Amino acid sequence: MDTLYRPLGLDLGRRKPRRRGRSAIPALAGTLCFALLVGGSLAVSLTQPRFRDVDVFATHPAPPEPLAVAAANPPPASPPAAGPAVTAAPLQPLGRTSAGADDAAVAAADPDAPTIVYPPGAEGGYGKALSMRDPGSLRQAASEAAEPDAALLEHGAEGLLPIRAADGRRPFDVYSIAPASDLGTRVAIVVGGLGISQTGTMKAVRELDPAVTLAFAPAGNSLERWMREARHAGHELLLQLPMEPVGYPNVSPGEHTLTAGDAAAGRFDDLRWALGRLTNYVGVANYMGARLTGDEPAMRALAAELSRRGLLYLDDGTSARSLAKSAAREAGGVYAGADVVLDTTQDPAEIRKRLDTLERAARAKGQAIGVASAFDMSVAAIAAWMSEAEARGIKVVPVSALADDPEAQ
């Protein structure tokens, strides 16, 4: 009976104590092995050139300011088994690098390093800064659109001429207008002849949608005033360049015509006169010029000069013999070519048919460019067509958005 009243568990034997010493030894040995492995890895990395000599680029908060990278990869005097060393100059924001900073970057590079040439066709040096940037970040702010960028101006006897900035920026980059949308079928419309008629110029600037590109004639009047009003309204600008036509001088675009002979010989006095009449434009468009655009030496020389200055060339599409596209490509310049001339006659019905042709061309290719003159009837027809075309999925964009830019590749 005693077993019935005995508390549960009191008859159990004593538990044997655990033997801790033997189980702690493997854990301690594992810790020592791990420490030796990490220490050995660090020692190896510090003694190998490929790890010891690498400079790690620090990240910079880039947007919206573009960055310039100066880098060189010199071969070692005696190639080690671990691989060649790499040296690099620090990142620097574009627009703030002085000549001294550029010289220091070049001096830090090895003379045997590869040559980076920028812009295309220009002489470069080893370790030369190579720009890496989003073209959209270079555009002027809307509040500054009517003010020329001093870094993009060259002072000459003919006035203020467009030129690439020392940091590589181009008038094409800075004065371009961002399209409202890159989606859908895109059309660019260029209306030229502005500045000749004050009434017609006012009508085009104030009644056309800002997406329409405006082209000014260098022989026009009050160009500075109209440039400012057009830029404040949101328009992208071109300058029309009088160029030698077939039958010149009996057929002439006016004074200061750039002839094929002068262009081929590099005599650009008339070109500089035209360029100096206006500022804040992304490029030039031919005014007449079938004789010059069909002359290979002349067109190659002109394309090279425009590329050097960072300007777009728009071919109005009136000459089937034009060599402008191939010349611009060879020079590394920006090129655009018109698909349809919209107002060969001042007939509203005919202009509307041409605009419909432009729309069909854009749907077939994804984009198309039309050109017109600043006649009242042309301006009214374009404005009416644009109000309807958007509902059909047509996006009118500045001409720069449809240009072929080799530097943006």
From TrEMBL:
This is Divergent polysaccharide deacetylase family protein. It comes from Plantimonas leprariae. One of its GO terms (biological process) is carbohydrate metabolic process. CDD domains: CE4_DAC2. SUPFAM superfamilies: Glycoside hydrolase/deacetylase. Pfam families: Polysacc_deac_2.
